[in-house]
Amino acid sequence: xxxxxxxxxxxxxxxxxxxxxxxxxxxxxxxxxxxxxxxxxxxxxxxxxxxxxxxxxxxxxxxxxxxxxxxxxxxxxxxxxxxxxxxxxxxxxxxxxxxxxxxxxxxxxxxxxxxxxxxxxxxxxxxxxxxxxxxxxxxxxxxxxxxxxxxxxxxxxxxxxxxxxxxxxxxxxxxxxxxxxxxxxxxxxxxxxxxxxxxxxxxxxxxxxxxxxxxxxxxxxxxxxxxxxxxxxxxxxxxxxxxxxxxxxxxxxxxxxxxxxxxxxxxxxxxxxxxxxxxxxxxxxxxxxxxxxxxxxxxxxxxxxxxxxxxxxxxxxxxxxx
Length: 322
Prior knowledge:
Elements: E1 4-8, H1 13-24, E2 28-33, E3 52-56, E4 69-72, H2 79-84, H3 86-107, E5 110-116, H4 131-134, H5 140-159, E6 163-168, E7 171-172, H6 183-192, E8 197-200, E9 206-208, E10 210-211, H7 212-224, E11 232-236, E12 241-243, H8 244-255, E13 261-264, E14 273-274, H9 279-285, H10 293-313, H11 318-321
Parallel strand pairs: 1-2, 1-4, 2-3, 4-5, 5-6, 6-11, 7-10, 8-13, 9-14
Antiparallel strand pairs: 9-12
């Protein structure tokens, strides 16, 4: 059955893939974002699609849209942005979530909130939460996500809003901007440009990386899952761990790059291990990522090579690319 679906933050990396997948499924999509849709290379191909609607709006102010489902992915996810503009970051997370929940309540719509694995803290338990940590600008986005989760539970308890929460861990893939601050994209761009690949600390930190299309599948499954008595909350991410230094070496090998890997001082908030427990997603949604890291890296490398070639043909220097 065709549905009207609003994707808040639809011009972003994950939002773009979600819009494309939902359009492919035959739904009418309202892509809401403060960024121009032209900034997403992938959205250009559906700009004239009869089921695609672009709405320029900042969700920190109230809005109305007639729809059956709302995916809220709106967040300034760039670390440098959240450090430079902590108030705007918190407004987007908190005021934006409240406005999205009001829209869901008014439309009797189901809403899914894209939270983050970073809300768990250094050792991924609420007991590890530190008030001092919350004051760090590096924790601003995580604190905003934590508060937004509480809002979703409050709207569910008080108003009966059908809310779901997806805690998203490291995601990568094609479609991201060359300026994207996610570690995989940064390393691939540096490798293909022959620049140094920077690793914080020893590089022994363990991380997981989920292919973006696998992640989107998990989000859609969560949205479509039967309603339960509480706010469905699941972790979405890969369970395959790799050390950051090993990831850099793998990217250098796959690109045939001569880039050197250099180590800088470790970040004080850089946890030793960050891996999601996806047992609930497996059990309740029948979901797990299936794209091997090597396959996903190859697709992402091919995508970045294509973008860099286009920029070279347009006589854009590497300094202007990143």
